Input
Amino acid sequence: MTDRLETAEHPEKLQRVVIEPLTRVEGHGKVTLLQDEDNRIRQARLHIVEFRGFEKFIQGRPYWELPVIVQRLCGICPVSHHIAAAKATDMLVGARQLTPTAEKIRRLMHFGQTLQSHALHFFHLCSPDLLFGFDDDVRHRNIVGVINDYPETAKQGVLLRKYGQEVIRVTAGKRIHGTGAIPGGVNKSLSREEIDYLQTDIDQIVTWSQGAVELIKRIFSEHRDYHMAFATVESNMLSMVGDNGAFELYHGGLRARDADGNTIFDHVDYTDYEHYLREGVKSWSYMKFPFIASMGSASGWYRVGPLARVNNCELFPTPLAEAERVTFRKIGDGRPVHALLAYHWARLIELLHCAEAIRELLVDSDLLGDDLLVKGEMQQRGIGVIEAPRGTLFHHYEIDPDGLVEKANLIVATTNNNQAMNESIRQVADQYLDGEQLTEPLLNQIEVAVRAYDPCLSCATHALGKMPLEIDLVDANGRLVDRINKRASGEISRAAC
Output
């Protein structure tokens, strides 16, 4: 990035262009551009404008409530927080190894979550840009346009997501905010009828998932040069991997590699994450900026999520996804694939893997077992890490002797990608907006860059939404002198005192 885009001298003299709200992402955010009189971009930043609070809300709550409470962070990612919190509370109750039934039911739930989330993101949020082009008319560049022009593609996207939600319902009790995972295991196994129900459509789901991968490969190949260059930044990458370096979503060690694919650290116990990762803050965002401790904040930022996972793993444990991984890695010519828009390709390879993994699990008799819980000696510290659809998710809790939460730290996937998203925005500003008269299609390219990461801004800030704010001014005698109210709409009023 050029220094010109990092800082802006005398910003009060520059024109401020604001993209607010960012569309087709989960949560509330905005991008600000500072532009001089010659239309040169002097600064580009992603701002997260929601309030960060969940780490405080859960202090004082009993640990066994956490898997249910923390999923209220988000209606899109509840299962991810549910499972990460459950893994952290497993550690609190001394459950070092779950029963086969409990672990496989959790894995099934997690595959269902990743399947439905990836389907939602690709078909509903990103396919309009990819199918119609970034500069297509805004009235057509949306999911309704996809339904009209590509009805079968739109239908398959809806049904893929529906199937993933049904997997969640069967394993967690509800599609959203379920209760299936509890400290030390799960609260129910599956019945024969539930397994038969899920098996009915799974072959079709695998076939549609293969079709989705073929679709993104075709789109990528038709516009290869553009897709390889658009908003692309080279970065470190972080993910979990299995013992043999295999792709892993539920449990494994942390692996970080640099932009050339060289190992920074590998198979690190995620309960030691604080020794390897740090979180920085900046005045203009509620979202933190994580980085690899040994490299410092300037060069230690990294990316997580599908692109990082497919680059970091040595193989997929399911055959169809593994064949697609091999094809995908070839476009990197021996180096990691850094193209931002390759996130979509990697995401659909993961979707295919989840469909295959669900099919394999549905013939496993352990799903019918009745040995559901494990407990051991209570611990004061519990850390749970999973690979959520958007990337590596950390839940860290510390409790007092009464089992009440004293400390909580959550690092979500979108937070891990924070610096990378800002770098990609600056890249778009430098490549496509600098010196141009800004138009909606040009500004949409900023949103395309953000959407590729599939950010969940609500999760990243532990948001309450657009909060109203009330400020009271009280004198030394306790008398109310003034009161100002800021409504959720942004309107400010002064109350009578």
Notes: The chain is about 40% helix and 20% strand. The longest helix spans residues 100-132.
